[in-house]
């Protein structure tokens, strides 16, 4: 009994979403809350120039959990969300197949230094761990320290994102790429990233995100 109690004490940690003690990364209560945000189909049509695959709808518990990931120093959530996204991806028979490399949307070096990690790269690593797809973490470099998009109009978003990226390392001509990010709203960022890749004859076959804004989404 003593050793069982000691093991429980040693391996039970606070849930990063609510603070409850839990033997799992996320407590059962928060997992159930997050599951209410999962989409019936991970493929969202009519949301941009490329097929968009999202695990959930951006709002409620999922919005709060992503905020915990990015602003409360819980990088472990990024890998977990990437794994959930991968499971949804693998269950979708319409997903692209073949030789695909996953490229996370990068942070500017100043923001990366401030945050300590790139949430899109963590999501991509979790995704690739399950799918087995190769990862090019430095495939794109953010050369412009853009403003936060949520406070901008569509026109301002487009100006803000202009010339934000340059080609990094790990990609070659005629590679097929999946762009990975945490949230999809208007698609301005991924479209700018895709244009950079396409200018080097690298094609984008889709975009994967943990959450997409509610427009056009349907819950399970």
Automatic annotation (TrEMBL):
SUPFAM superfamilies: PRTase-like (SSF53271). InterPro entries: ComF/GntX_DNA_util-trans, PRTase-like, PRTase_dom. Residues 167-218 form the Phosphoribosyltransferase domain. It comes from Candidatus Synechococcus calcipolaris G9. Belongs to the ComF/GntX family. It comes from the Bacteria. This is ComF family protein.
């Amino acid at each position: 009994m003593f050793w069982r109690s000691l093991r429980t004490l040693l391996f039970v940690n606070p849930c990063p979403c609510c603070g409850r003690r839990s033997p799992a990364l996320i407590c059962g209560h928060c997992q159930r809350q997050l599951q209410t945000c999962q989409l019936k189909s991970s493929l969202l049509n009519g949301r941009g120039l490329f097929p968009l695959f999202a695990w959930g709808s951006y709002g409620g518990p999922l919005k709060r959990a992503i905020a915990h990931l990015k602003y409360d120093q819980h990088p472990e959530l990024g890998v977990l969300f990437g794994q959930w996204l991968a499971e949804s991806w693998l269950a979708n028979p319409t997903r692209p197949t073949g030789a695909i490399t996953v490229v996370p949307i990068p942070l500017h070096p100043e923001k990366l230094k401030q945050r300590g990690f790139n949430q899109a790269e963590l999501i991509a690593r979790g995704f690739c761990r399950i799918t087995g797809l190769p990862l090019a973490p430095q495939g794109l470099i953010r050369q412009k320290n853009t403003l936060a998009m949520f406070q901008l109009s569509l026109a301002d978003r487009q100006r803000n994102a202009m010339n934000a990226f340059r080609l990094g390392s790990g990609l070659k001509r005629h590679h097929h790429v999946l762009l990975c990010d945490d949230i999809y709203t208007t698609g301005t960022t991924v479209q700018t990233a895709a244009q950079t890749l396409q200018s080097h004859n690298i094609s984008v076959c889709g975009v994967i995100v943990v959450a997409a804004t509610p427009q056009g989404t349907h819950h399970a």
